[in-house]
Amino acid sequence: MNFLNSVPGQEKALNILNEIFNSKRIPNALLFTGKQGVGKFLAAINFLKLINSSSSESIRNNISQLKEPYVKYIFPLPRGKNETGEDGPFDKLSDEQMTDVRRELELKKSNPYYPLNIDKAENIKITSIRDVKRFLSMNFDDVKHRAIIIDDAHLMSNEAQNALLKSLEEPPHNLFFILITPYEDRLLTTTKSRCWTVNFIPLSDELVENILVENLNLSKSQAAQIAPFAEGSIAEALSLAEMDIDEILENVIKILRYSLARKYSTAMSIVDDILKRYGEDYLRSTLRLAIIWFSDVVKNKYGKENYYFNKFSETIIKFNKRFADVNIFEFSAEIDRLITLMDKKVSLNLIVLNTIFGLGALGLRNQ
């Protein structure tokens, strides 16, 4: 494995990690930041394999397969029935829940860009963090370095992060932590201060398209349609691949059109239909595409024609004629605010309604 080429589009992050490896001074904890689906998890696995490059191939394969005691992988889990703080993180999960967990882990092993999607897994349990102590106590002489990878680390509660602090400061010899998150601002300052931060950047459209075709078996035409809307994220691209892109784009236009025309009940009924039929992830993708649509509006305003929404160019032109003096950035900011609130689990009906009214007010103000 050529480590410096092992994660497409992340040359800067890999160079930093390679320098750390060459220094022979591995920090107690690394924090991998950057949006979801850009290669942070793949880099974590490959970095651990790099550090163990003198070990046998079977050990490196065990790392790829997330096998303990070579690597401990911590991630959000659902709560089991009658679960208490004395139970292990998996002890009270039902057979159905365990089947869901195992299926998602297999998908993650086969595709490191895959975002785990375990039903009702909304946080990292403090029992998962307490289970770290058991892992730390295990001695295993045939592997040079071991790691604890905490995915979606921002989903640790303050209590869980505080329970982790002592281990972050003084892990056993040849064992270190890798925390992975797209939301480092949600981590406690005390947690972040104990980590060496490595930033990962969004991927280019070309790279997203190539990865979708070469590694994930999408057709070239499907990948070319999806890549411009993936915002540099393979996870977002995979989510879009399961949806009808044309239908999403049409819904974006409808929501904006009815909101700006102050036909609030019609706009809300479209959002309600999306939620009932497809769920929050689909709505989130719809809103992200609305922001991209507004970027096309800006392009048209300044005489550029390389639109993402080529099929809707006429609508873009009509929008600029009707709202010639509108502040496009306010519209984008309003929708971005809604996405942020969705990520923070604020009441969805309330924030959607406020956003639709907010768009209508902006349109009225700028006419």
The total tally of domains equals 2
Name of the CATH architecture of the largest domain: 3-Layer(aba) Sandwich
CATH class of the largest domain: Alpha Beta
Q: What is the CA-atom radius of gyration, in angstroms?
A: 23 Å
The overall strand count is 5
What is the number of helical segments per DSSP (H or I, 4+ residues)?
16
Under CATH, the homologous superfamily of the largest domain reads P-loop containing nucleotide triphosphate hydrolases
Largest sheet: 5 strands, parallel
Beta-strand content estimate: 5-15%
Uncertain runs: none
Multimerization state: single chain
What does this structure look like?
This protein has 367 residues and is α/β, with parallel strands linked by helices. Helices cover 54% and strands 7% of the residues. The protein contains 16 helices and 5 strands. Strands 2-3-4-1-5 form a 5-stranded parallel beta sheet, with helices on both faces. Helix 8 (205-214) packs antiparallel against helix 9 and helix 11 (245-260) packs antiparallel against helix 12 (264-277).
Write the layout of secondary structure elements.
Layout: H1 11-23, E1 29-33, H2 40-51, H3 57-64, E2 71-74, H4 95-110, H5 126-136, E3 146-150, H6 158-169, E4 175-181, H7 189-192, E5 196-199, H8 205-214, H9 220-226, H10 234-241, H11 245-260, H12 264-277, H13 280-301, H14 313-322, H15 328-343, H16 348-365
Parallel strand pairs: 1-4, 1-5, 2-3, 3-4
Helix pairs in contact: 1-2, 5-6, 8-9, 11-12, 11-13, 11-16, 12-16, 13-14, 13-15, 15-16
